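Dear colleagues,

As part of the handover before I leave the project, I'm documenting each prediction I ran so the next person doesn't have to rerun anything. This entry is a single chain, and its sequence is reproduced below.
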Amino acid sequence: MTEWLIFLAIVPLSCIYLTKSMEIKNRIMWNGIAIGAVIAPVSFGLIQMTYIPFLGKFLGLVGVIVNLTHGSIGYISLLWSGMIEPNQPITALEFVMINTFNGVLFAYIYGLIGYAVDRRMAKEKDRIPALKAMFHTVTPHS
């Protein structure tokens, strides 16, 4: 069942495609929210891909690295809040709580980072006068 978590990667990929094709104003912010919402469960799904001979080992390594930074924050936060008992195996419900907490937290963080990048790009675009000028075709005089 955990192998299906990799299909959550469709969410940010479709968000990237839609925001690019619809030319949405805060494009990077929306992409950050979509990536942050699914990064923890997708990284856990990548860890489960290690049974594939060569490519799976690389994907599993990427999953371990990403899960070390994104998966542990939700676990530690819920452990400190008392919602998860220490020194006990994680049940399916606790796993869902951890990934839901991680999804909300990292969607917020990556959304803020994307918003800051969007604002900086908008300011840089306003500073460059050539980007604001309209391009006109030159017609020869007869």
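The longest helix spans residues 92-127. The chain has one domain: 2-132.

All the best with the project,
I.
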